[in-house]
Amino acid sequence: MTDRRVVVFPSSAELGPALAELVSSRAEKVLGQGGSRFSLGLSGGSLVSMLSKELPALPNLDCSRWLVGFCDERVVPFDDPESTYGLYKSQLFPKLNIPKEHILAINHSLPVEECAEDYAHKLKQTFPDDQIPMFDMLLLGMGPDGHTCSLFPDHPILQETMKTVAPISDSPKPPPCRVTMTFPVVNAARCVVFVSTGGSKAPVLKQVLEGGVTPALPAACVSPSQGELLWLVDEPAAAALTLSVERPGPGAKL
To answer: Residue 2: which pLDDT band, with cuts at 50, 70 and 90?
Structure first.
């Protein structure tokens, strides 16, 4: 049974620093318990600006033993504004001491099917002892349709059980060509953190967290088999929820 926590903050201004502190503290825990590295999967959207502001603001943050991958990616050149890697490369990575060779980026010059196979191979090389790559932490967002990563409602890719990275050439949200982690990888993570903010997310957040939608929306299918699941949301996004939530005080640790 996945340990799920729903934590509500007054606004994204309070959520951002708490997220950065959570990432940092989990990294310290993994490395302090003898881990050789801390593996982190990133998503795009509002997480880019939030992490780019809050992570570098932490004092004495050492990322030299971090390994960073991407939960999904658009198959576009890195200088395209749709490139998630490109956004982090310009906004976050220069501010942190993550070794370049510890950042796993796609080869966007390949056709989408080969791009997915290439990225899956990179994950296999990086996690050679794992049958399914097991990240220490994945940071996920959620779209207004309930999608997460590039796992969209009613798409055949939701049924994928063999591939760790899958290609999409018909994304309902542009750009059409993407590669994405599949549910086997997402649900193998030791900790998954969703970040959802804004009143526009309130209806879908209620559907995902409280059920009542058949088939279940993709974000509702995230349930790490042996890990934690945290939802960090702001009050506007949580407005329709009736379930029990946590509301930490200022400066509280997650």
So the answer is: low
C-alpha closest to that of 189 among 136, 129, 230: 136
For CA atoms 89, 93, 99, 103, the dihedral sign is negative
As a whole number of Å, the CA-based R_g of the chain is 17
pTM above 0.90, yes or no: yes
* 168 neighbors 147 (Cβ within 8 angstroms): no
CATH topology of domain 3-216+223-234: Rossmann fold (3.40.50)
Tokens representing 242?
A: 């009736």
pLDDT in tens, 46-101: 999 999 999 999 999 999 999 999 999 999 999 999 999 999 999 999 999 999 99
pLDDT for position 38: 98
> In terms of Cα–Cα distance, which of 195, 244, 243 is closest to 219?
195
Q: Which of 3, 5, 1 lies closest to 233 in space, CA to CA? A: 5
Dihedral (CA of 33, 38, 40, 46) sign? positive
183: exposed, middle or buried (Cβ count in 10 Å: 0-12, 13-18, 19+): buried
> In sequence order, what DSSP letters do the residues of 108-170 get, joined into one string?
TTS-HHHHHHHHHHHHHHHSTT-SS---SEEEE---TTS-BTTB-TT-GGGG--S-SEEEESS
